[in-house]
Amino acid sequence: MLKNYIMVALRMLARHKIYSLINIFGLAIGLALCLIVIGHISYELSFEDFHQNKDRIYRVNLKYRAEDTELYSSLVMSPLGPALRESLPETQKIAVFRVIGNIDLSIGEGSFMERYEAAREGFKYDANVFCADPEYLEIFTLPLVAGDPKSALREPFTMLITEPAAQKYFKGINPIGRVVKINDKLTCRITGVLKEIPPNTQLNCEFIVSYSSLQHIDENLASWEKYDRDFVYMLLNEDVNLAEVEAKISAIFQRHVGKETASKYEFELQPLKDIYFSYYGSGRMGDLSPHGEASMMIEIGVVAGFVLLLAIANFINLSTARSSDRTREVGVRKVFGAHKSHLIRQFIGESIIITFISVILGLLAYEIFKIIIEDLLPRQMFADFYHNGIMVILVIALTIAVGVLAGFYPALYLSRFRPIAVLQGKSGIKSSKSLLRKGLVVFQFTIAIGFICSTTIIYRQINYIANMELGFKRENMLVINFIGKKAAENAAILKNEIQKKNKVLSVTATNDPPGSQGHTFYTYYKDQSFEDSSRVVFKKFCVDDNFISTFGLDVIKGRSFSEYGSVDGKNTVMVTEAVVKDLKITEPIGHKLYRKDGLVEIVGVLKDFHGTPLNYSYRPQIILSPEPEELTNLVVKLPPQDISASVTAIKETWDSTFPGKTFDYAFLDDLIESNYNDDRGSVKMFSVLSALAILIACLGIFGLVSFTAEKKTKEIGIRKVLGASVPNIVKMLSREFVILIAISNIIAWPLAYSLMQSFLQWFPFRASIGAGTFLLAGIMALALALLTSGFQAVKAAVANPVNSLRDE
Amino acid sequence: MIDLKNVSKCYSSGKVNTYVLRKINLEINEGEFMTIMGPSGAGKSTLLNIIGMLDSMSEGEYHFLGESVQKLNERKRVDLYKQFIGFIFQSYHLIDELTVYENLETPLIYKKIKSSQRKSMVCDTLDRFQIVGKKDLFPNQLSGGQQQLVGIARAIIAEPKLLLADEPTGNLHSEQGKEIMDLLKKLNDEGTTILQVTHSEKNAAYGSRIIKLLDGWIED
């Protein structure tokens, strides 16, 4: 029976090529999008899956609560881990580890600058050096390919290296026994090589240094006061009561710090598998990156699902429209003993076969997509279908679900035919189908038009904020970032050298270049009470004397910082108008603000400028303060002529100042623009999705019109004989779609409008939503639909009526 | 075998009832070769379809092999006719997407006959109708006569007790028509009860009994 059905299905596909292509192609597009989403979700869900103990591993998180501060952290005090190890019987193992930041590695002769960016926005993998105790290797599944796992990480000044890092830094030379110097402080000997760590973990690193090495360089190792020191992961016995363990941790903590301090802290055990998805919105500090973002996954999943629905709508439409092709088969099968259930099974089976073919094509598209996208992404984000069990199951489930969803209505519809009527040449069914078909076409175009409107609005919004006047000069600014302990010192050295050697317009040093994503916010108090009510928070730029002139800021009151450096100290500040407004003061000059460590006096007022990115927050309240030790960025204003020569000249200065170090720079324009990368990415994604949605919807119309034209061949012939012109016929065949698309517009516009209204709410500066956007989307959809339907209609209309009337 | 009592069939459109069949009383015994004749619109096909259980009657009683057909639900009715009745149509009604072999196999599939047994039954039938060479062809690759041959082969493959033929030679030219009628005669001789609808006196002559319909009534 199955073979019989499959044969029929495949032969039907082969016979009706256009319909098959539309169905398969459309479904393949929709499915490919869903597969991409599924591939991403599967990959994200697979994080930390490779640890054999994954279900019994927990991290200790800390919550701190005092009068005016609340704090949530995944890092805890250094001595907590060892204390728990001694006195907590429920735990089998405890790993204490940390990430070493600001890495400057020296191996043998060469020097490698590796930048560690603290868990910022998820994507970067620069947390290269971990520092862990021996139990780390026992809790997590991290096998060694060389060296002794029993003695690994036990001795101070020993370290492990991963296979890829060994390849990267030692290029085929056996790394065991070699010495690596970290930040000029720690010199470690490599005692083992770790098997390559899978990418789907937050514990990815290149080196693991033995934790005991820290005793000699970290004076806070025994301090119970510093809470943001180390990660503590525990391997618990099965069926322990987490609340009890948490209570015991608090009790142990209390024994060390006393009751009063302990009352401010709470400890929480977080299952390993939950960590990856629980970062965004939790307010937790110190997490390792990357993180999963569940809400974004749901959003793209919904959008991809809609495109798939469009393809399913095509399938339903074309199957029911074409039902007359199948009526006789249904009749014959019924006469020869088929029950309705047989036929329903047959037709659903057929749609599953079509879905299956589409899934194969979709998987092919997925693989191609992966190859293209992999280089563009900072990390792996998509599962390998053949190695990811979750994905295989999801794909099989999707195939069946889509097959049934697409096939169910047509199956029900077709199997209803009464054999006797069918065999006598009547359709055997009362026609209610065209309403459904119209409804589905309206549904498709509503989605497509909605997509186009939304994309246009997002695009306009991003352009609007990206091109806004920021209030400071941003062109031809070269930014050089320094990191590490000597950052400010080195920046000052280079600033000096550039001023001496290079022909530049000006050089200024700052903590953050304005417009980039710095997060330096400072709290001040209006008076010395230090109460919450008098607290104000400003974005702070630490600057030198050149800052204001380099960026062309307007001083509207008071004075600028003095020309000769050291005259103004930390306690003189300049503020923007917005700050003055915030403070509600009439005479800002000489006004004082307080911090617990001292007071500052306002010496000048600046015109407001947009010092922070304009995507989601607007903070014109800015304070400028001269603090030489914070100036880790140099901004060099280049003469507009021959930028590349200027850059080369500066590189020469760099090379002579810091021989052997890599010269790394960026342009301020690019840095500012990069704030909108995510948004531009969304625009691109939505453009592609809109294009696909409209493509699928038009394919559906193409199929429907060619079907109508085919069925009406005779009518068209008769009409032409009676004197109808080609435009008359085209109009007759296309009219219906014009009406349907008009209805779609009317539904889509308010939907897109309210959706985009809520999207734009996130932005402090909003482009207006004009009627033009909607009209344009509507006209575009209409034009494309007319083009596709017109093509088929014209073909039918110009045919010679003699041919269509003869064969009767 | 077949016992119709006061069977009527009417279609109602609005307030008007149009009778296609009126108070038909008919008995058909096993082994008969019966012909229904009459002009177009007399209700011949409707009667055939009611006997074949493809159509329902408006009034009256129908007993098939002692079973009261009007009391059966659809599923039981399908099971009954697929067990005992074979159909032959004027326009053959083969499934275009299936080969000759697969067309013959279809009724056996719905009777849940095992694959190996199906194979031997189809092969036997192909052999008996001398169409082994055509088993992999599709209907549109055959002539009308050949298609009807396949149609008959499909109708009798499950060895029905009753064969219903609605103008089986209507689309064939006389030579082919004669061959088909000879075949039906032979099947009747081998024991199959046959009920045919035809316009042709010549074809009617093959049968053992003729009833004539006019405006839904049986003419005496």
Short characterization:
The complex is a heterodimer of chains A (808) and B (220). Chain A is built from 24 helices and 24 strands. A six-stranded mixed β-sheet of chain B has the order 6-7-8-3-9-10, with helices on both faces.
Can you offer a commentary on this structure?
The complex is a heterodimer of chains A (808) and B (220). Chain A is of the alpha+beta class and 808 residues long. Chain A has three domains: 1-47 and 294-431, no CATH class; 54-275, no CATH class; 477-637, no CATH class. Chain A is built from 24 helices and 24 strands. In chain A, the strands form three sheets. In chain A, strands 1, 2, 3, 4, 5, 6, 7, 8, 9, 10, 11, 12 and 13 form a 13-stranded mixed β-sheet that branches. In chain A, a hairpin with a 2-residue loop joins strand 4 and strand 5. In chain A, helix 14 crosses helix 22 (726-760). The longest helix of chain A is centred in the middle third of the chain and has 35 residues, at 340-374. In chain A, 41% of the residues are buried. Residues 109-127 of chain A have low confidence and may be disordered. With 220 residues, chain B is an alpha/beta fold. Chain B has a single domain (29-52, 82-219), classed as Rossmann fold (3-Layer(aba) Sandwich), CATH 3.40.50.300. Chain B contains seven helices and ten strands. In chain B, strand 9 (209-214) and strand 10 form a beta hairpin. In chain B, 43% of the residues are buried. At the A-B interface, helix 1, helix 10 and helix 13 of A face helix 2 and helix 3 of B.
